[in-house]
Amino acid sequence: MGCPVVPTSDVPLQKLGFLTIGVFDGDDPRPGMEALLTQIQLGEELGFDSAWLRHRHLQFGVSSPVAIMAAASQRTSRIELGTAVTPLAWENPLRLAEDLATVDLLSGGRINPGVSVSQPMRWDDVKHALYPDTVEDFTYERVTRFLRMVGGEAVATAGTQGIEVFSDRVQPHSPGLRDRVWYGAGSFRSAAWAAEQRLNLLTSSVLTGAETADFAGVQGAQIEAYREVFPEGRVSQGLVVIPTDTATAAQREKYADYAAARLPRTRQPQGPGKLLFAPDIVGTSEQIAEQLHAHAGFQQVTEVAFALPFSFDHEDYVQILTDMATHLGPALGWSPAQ
Questions:
Q1: Alpha-carbon distance 165 to 223, whole Å?
Q2: Residue-range domains of the chain with CATH
Q3: Distance of alpha carbon 90 from alpha carbon 22, whole angstroms
Q4: How far apart are CA 241 and CA 236, in angstroms?
Q5: What is an example of a Pfam family matching this protein (predicted)?
Q6: Would you say 18 and 11 are in contact if contact means Cβ atoms under 8 Å apart?
Q7: Which residues contact 103 (CB under 8 A, 6 or more apart)?
Q8: For 18-55, how does the pLDDT look when each residue is reduced to its tens digit (9 = 90+)?
Q9: pTM for the whole thing?
Q10: CA separation for the pair 158, 141 (Å, rounded)
Q11: DSSP letter string, 94-128
Q12: Helix (H, G, I), strand (E, B) or coil at 240
């Protein structure tokens, strides 16, 4: 398979997805979770190709995407479901492989696990609760262990013990799941490693190790480096994009204020990790499409998973998703899935 075509204004975007953290009220979580499932159902009805969940541990957002995907798989029939991303430092790779294979089979092969690895956020605060008795490996080896298990390689000795029969590999096994694993990369090093492992590449609105404030240029160069090694790999971009075509005046003001408050952090790399954040893109679908077609990162992909803003109301997400599917997607040449 050759390199995917570049989605310039003359080449249509092939896959449109959205990404959310699924916010909820800590005192009454269920309504927020139900709203999230409703949004995924709406995404399928609107023709989105995929819906992605972002992890939020010890916060008021999705902490168990596998459980949400299991529920969503029974309320939908076509839309792909993914994680962007699962931080493997919080997971036992074998148990995660079992859960993902189970949900993938129940969904009919629609699960796209996105993973990453590094020391957990707020490590000093959580390590005694997360790993009180063990020393864990947070290197790429944790990812390769997970890949071997998802891929069906032997992890134990098959046999019987009394009347119990044991497999040598993770059960259930879902053929094809390994090929749908993505890696969330923010640096040149991680993008290159993902390509070497033949993992699909998730790029987001955050880069690491940035030396300049040119987010689009850095992201575009990372994707080019990935494609040099693994040209047939899938690449998805996940910028925060907020179309306002059918938004009310109050919503437009709310969205503009949200983006303005987050803009200062985009002007230069932040902190010792040199984190570089992309500006949120707010405007009509025509305005957003013009900016995306000029974006060096977007120019390197044929599919996207636009990130929904944090802490908005359900009605806002319905408007944003509807505008994405009915206005922005067509402006990018995308056609809704049937």
A1: 46
A2: 15-155+167-331 (3.20.20.30)
A3: 19
A4: 14
A5: Bac_luciferase
A6: no
A7: 66, 69, 70, 73, 111
A8: 999 999 999 999 999 999 999 999 999 999 999 999 99
A9: 0.95
A10: 24
A11: HHHHHHHHHHHHHHTS-EE-EEE-SSPTTHHHHHH
A12: strand
